[in-house]
Amino acid sequence: MSMHGSSLEAKLVILGSQGVGKTSLVMRYVQNTFSPHSASTIGASFLTQRMQVFGVIRRGYVDDCRVVLQIWDTAGQERFRSMAPMYYRGANAAILVYDITSEQSFQDISSWVEELQRNTGDIDIHVVGSKLDLAEKSREVPQERAQAYVRNTLGSLHDVHEVSAKDATGVDELFHDVTRSLVERTYEIERTRRERQAGDVQLRDGRQEASDQACCNV
Description:
By secondary structure, this protein is α/β, with parallel strands linked by helices. The protein has one domain: Rossmann fold (3-Layer(aba) Sandwich). It is built from 6 helices and 7 strands. The chain has helices at 22-31, 84-88, 103-119, 135-138, 143-154, 171-216, and strands spanning 2-4, 7-16, 44-58, 61-74, 93-99, 124-130, 161-162. Strands 1, 2, 3, 4, 5, 6 and 7 form a 7-stranded mixed β-sheet that branches. Helix 3 (103-119) links the parallel strand 5 and strand 6. The longest helix has 46 residues, at 171-216. It starts with a strand and ends with a helix.
C-alpha cells in the first residue's frame, strides 16, 4: 500500500468458493453490470477502480483521500486453490465471499481466514454474503450466525456484509467501507510512524544533552 500525499494505491483480493458470485460482485461495482451466465474465472482477473473517500481525520484535521483500488478477482475452483497465494501476496485487504444459499460456501470461509492470517500478517479482512436477492426463498446461512462468526474471529468491530450483485443491494456500500477502512488504517500507520520518529529524536536529543552535561562537569 503506497501513500502519496492524499492519494492511496491499494491491492484488494477477492476470495471464496466456486460459484459464490465473486466476479458478479466485482463487475457490478466496477462496471455496474450483471450477467447471470458469467464464465468461471481462470486463475485471476485484474481491474482498477478509482474513488474518493471524504472526511477522514488525518493529522488533526479532516482530509479527503483519492484511492486507486487494484482489485484481483480470483478463481474459486479447487484446482486453482494452490495459486491463491500468488494473488493475495502483498494484498492490503481481502473480501471473502460466501453464498448465503450455500452452507458449504460459508464453512469454507474459515479456511480462507486461517490461511490469510497465517500467510499475510496484518491484512484487512471483510466477510461478505452474496446473493441476498435469494434470501427469502433459499437462505441457508442466517445473518446472525455469520455475524457472530465474524466478530468472534476478526473482532467485535467487524460486520458481515450481505449484498446482491443482481440488484446491486449493498455493493457500493461494501466497497466504500473496505476503501475507507484501508485509508483509516494507512493514516493510523502514518501517525504511529511519526510518533515513533519523534520519540527517537527526543531520545537522541536527551542522550546528547546528557553527554554534553557530562563533558562540561569534567
